[in-house]
Specification:
Elements: E1 17-18, E2 25-31, H1 37-60, E3 63-64, E4 68-74, H2 80-84, E5 85-87, H3 94-102, H4 115-127, E6 134-139, H5 146-155, H6 158-162, H7 173-182, E7 186-191, H8 209-220, E8 225-227, H9 235-255, H10 259-272
Parallel strand pairs: 1-3, 2-4, 2-6, 6-7, 7-8
Antiparallel strand pairs: 4-5
């Protein structure tokens, strides 16, 4: 097993690429409603592997970076203030990230979900001085429409309740996405096919999660949108591959030169051949 602590002390003689002054700071946003329980459970099991593979490939390719990551889970307004949004501390190793995920239970859900709240959280972190470089969005439903933000808040306590919370001011995902774009944050989006017909989820959206997630990535100008199939026997490995390659892409972009191509090529050759 790789010694994670060794990564930070790579000899400068061996380092061919180093990240710029803006180091990788990555927020992983996960829908934590009831239909996403399989993804959450797999994330709990795979987060250590994600971090270890990231550091191992960096070591092998002589790329030195201190990566910071935060896990954020979002639900919907029926979950009220206490469970609408939860997040870990910013971490450079998997231990506390895994502990946070272990504390999270999938619950709630109202069709289209409160992605706007997760985006707003990242923007708040940026406003507080955190130089976030990448967002990884994982979910099985599109974001709330502007009308749904209003009606779901009204149906879950109304203004008299929400004005007493940290979510007093309503927001919309496209507004928050534009703020991310303005901050030059790269957005990756991985959509899960929940298997539930949209009519059963009480959604009025005419667009599928794939279409909306692809639109989010397209508007950000960079990133990648892919399907995450967690129902297969290799669902956990697929989750690990998608997240780790997204992280390595961000590291490579910040390192410059051919680092991104080298990191991704090394990862694919070492880990994904045979189960892509």
């Amino acid at each position: 097993m790789i010694n994670r602590h060794r990564i930070w002390f790579i000899s400068t003689v061996r380092v061919h690429h180093a990240c710029s002054l803006v180091r990788p700071v990555i927020a992983v946003l996960i829908d934590a409603t009831g239909s996403m329980s399989d993804v959450l459970n797999r994330a709990k099991r795979q987060v250590q592997m994600m971090m270890e593979r990231t550091y191992e490939i960096m070591d092998e390719q002589n790329v030195r970076c201190a990566v910071e990551m935060q896990f954020v889970v979002y639900r919907n307004y029926s979950s009220k203030e206490s469970s609408l949004l939860q997040y870990s501390t910013w971490e450079s190793s998997s231990d506390n990230l895994r502990s946070f995920l272990e504390s999270v239970t999938a619950s709630g859900g109202q069709g289209n979900e409160a992605i706007e709240i997760a985006f707003a959280h990242v923007n708040n972190e940026i406003q507080l001085g955190k130089e976030v470089t990448q967002v990884i969005l994982i979910g099985d439903m599109p974001p709330n429409t502007m009308k749904e933000v209003r009606t779901k808040r009204e149906g879950s306590g109304g203004d008299s309740y929400w004005h007493t919370t940290k979510f007093a001011i309503p927001t919309y995902y496209e507004h928050e996405l534009q703020r991310l774009i303005d901050a030059e944050v790269t957005v990756y989006a991985f959509y899960v096919n929940s298997g539930f017909p949209s009519i059963l989820l009480n959604t009025s959206s005419e667009k599928t999660v794939r279409e909306v997630f692809q639109s989010i990535v397209d508007k950000s100008g960079k990133g990648l949108c892919e399907e995450l199939n967690v129902q297969s026997d290799e669902g956990g490995l697929r989750l690990t591959d998608l997240v780790t390659k997204a992280v390595l892409s961000n590291i490579g972009e910040l390192s410059g030169g051919d680092a991104k191509e080298r990191l991704l090529r090394a990862y694919i050759e070492k880990y994904t051949q045979g189960h892509q």
